[in-house]
Amino acid sequence: MLLCMRTTIRIDDNLLNEAKQAALVSNTTLSAVVETALREMLHRRRHTADRKPVELLTFRGRGLMPGVDLDDGAALLDLMERD
Hints:
By secondary structure, the protein is mainly alpha-helical. The protein has 3 helices and no strands. The chain has a domain at 13-49.
């Protein structure tokens, strides 16, 4: 037997309206939508904590060229397209 508890929570109006719409579209209850979302978030959090860090390969070099701004994608593209 599954034990259910009634509780009161505060939810942003826009988020609540979206959740109600999701329940309507999927022909389920608001409670089921909230439970599913909460289960998915908790599952993702558990499995993210178990992940091992990724090691990125690095190569020796002389560093960045003078004036290169890694945050300027357009300038980087221009630089890479030069001969």
